Task: structure prediction
Amino acid sequence: MVKQILLVEDDLSLIGGLSFAVRKEGYEIDVARTTLKADALWSEGKYDLVILDVSLPDGSGFDLCRKMRLTSKVPIMFLTAADEETDMIMGLDCLHRKMTFYHLNVGIFHIINYNESGKIVLN
Result:
């Protein structure tokens, strides 16, 4: 079964590169550029991973994460351009925008393919 990823990002250049890299690895990806669109996609779909930008034009990725946590334990990765330690700590699974696509794909693989017991699950 193909794994589904929700990318919530407003930067078009990042959307293009991230979408390409994720699809190249065999994942399906839906993209939202605002929290409003992310809410709509979230309510319609079942995702194996959410990748959230910290700063969005209509709200915070942290606020969106809190809302998603009310109904799901889906893994969430944060993207940030900030070097603020507070943002990194709040996001925990935080990827800096200066990362390579290799690091993104390694992170996605590990998050999607490990179950709660910490054992790898390959389908």
